[in-house]
């Protein structure tokens, strides 16, 4: 544990992992989600919620931003590090991660990432500690969006880069179903303009670029729909056939026909 990086002492240690947040209903909910995820990984080696191809394509878009906006040797923090997959692609950076799943953190630590257990609201690091901060598939989950964004930006050095990825224009209705197994999952929606307004207008950052995440034609996120019976099913079948015949044509058609599953933004923290 790099003690000098932390602004306060941990509440306790879980093995080699410093713990900065107490358990509550929110963390217990997330522990249940991550435990189900890890159990499915052990059983089938697959993510129960995201097809592996979609996950890898989403990571690739974010990784491209990391590589454009950071350099070897930079200190990088992944807020919501999960299994540590994203930081695994940049071993030449000084890698740190925080999360509220001890199961995830144990795996990330085993991959050589220095980790801690903390909610974003309890951000444990000193101000201005990191050259680049990454936060993927997290902000849609948090209870207090403004507070969490403030905490994240506080540990980024002036002039440093924040890279965020969130789901794009997601239908949230399934999370209102009383039968849904988790209390807190995705709590808000985003798109590219809302991210630019959030970080550019509200937090005064310089928007460097936005980038669509992966496209996935099998979720029926069509940009337009003809009023024909079973049109969505026919499109899925057609795109699946095209992907097998010509991957190039399939890839070229995706952004013309479908909304992206996710959106990324890279912003620069003000230097002053």
Structure description:
The structure is a single chain. The chain has 272 residues and is of the alpha/beta class. It has a single domain (3-214, 262-268), classed as 3-Layer(aba) Sandwich (Rossmann fold), CATH 3.40.50.150. The chain is built from eight helices and nine strands. It has helices at 25-44, 52-69, 85-88, 102-110, 145-154, 192-202, 231-245, 247-257; strands at 12-14, 17-19, 75-79, 94-99, 114-117, 130-136, 156-167, 206-212, 262-268. It has a seven-stranded mixed beta sheet with strand order 5-4-3-6-7-9-8, with helices on both faces. A two-stranded antiparallel sheet has the order 1-2. Helix 5 (145-154) links the parallel strand 6 (130-136) and strand 7. Helix 7 (231-245) packs antiparallel against helix 8 (247-257). The relative contact order is 0.14.
Helix and strand arrangement:
Layout: E1 12-14, E2 17-19, H1 25-44, H2 52-69, E3 75-79, H3 85-88, E4 94-99, H4 102-110, E5 114-117, E6 130-136, H5 145-154, E7 156-167, H6 192-202, E8 206-212, H7 231-245, H8 247-257, E9 262-268
Parallel strand pairs: 3-4, 3-6, 4-5, 6-7
Antiparallel strand pairs: 1-2, 7-9, 8-9
């Amino acid at each position: 544990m790099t003690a000098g990086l932390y602004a306060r002492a941990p509440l306790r240690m879980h093995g080699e992992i410093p713990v900065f947040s107490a358990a509550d209903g929110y963390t217990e909910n997330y522990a249940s989600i991550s435990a189900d995820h890890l159990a499915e990984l052990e059983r089938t080696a697959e993510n129960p919620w995201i097809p592996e191809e979609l996950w890898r394509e989403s990571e690739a878009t974010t990784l491209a931003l990391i590589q454009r906006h950071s350099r070897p040797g930079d200190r990088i923090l992944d807020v919501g590090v999960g299994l540590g997959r994203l930081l695994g692609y940049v071993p030449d950076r000084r890698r740190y991660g925080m999360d509220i799943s001890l199961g995830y953190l144990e795996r990330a630590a085993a991959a050589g990432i220095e980790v801690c257990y903390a909610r974003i609201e309890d951000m444990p690091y000193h101000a201005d500690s990191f050259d680049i901060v990454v936060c993927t598939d997290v902000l849609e989950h948090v209870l207090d969006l403004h507070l969490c964004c403030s905490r994240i930006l506080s540990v980024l050095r002036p002039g440093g880069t924040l890279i965020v990825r969130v789901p794009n224009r997601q239908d949230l209705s399934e999370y209102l179903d009383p039968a849904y197994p988790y209390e807190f999952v995705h709590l808000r929606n985003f798109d590219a303009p809302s991210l630019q307004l959030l970080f550019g207008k509200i937090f005064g950052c310089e928007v460097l670029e936005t980038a669509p995440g992966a496209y996935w034609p099998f979720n029926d996120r069509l940009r337009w729909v003809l009023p024909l019976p079973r049109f969505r099913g026919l499109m899925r079948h057609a795109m699946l056939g095209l992907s097998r015949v010509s991957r190039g044509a399939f890839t070229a058609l995706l952004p013309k026909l479908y909304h992206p599953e996710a959106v990324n933004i890279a912003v620069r923290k003000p230097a002053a």
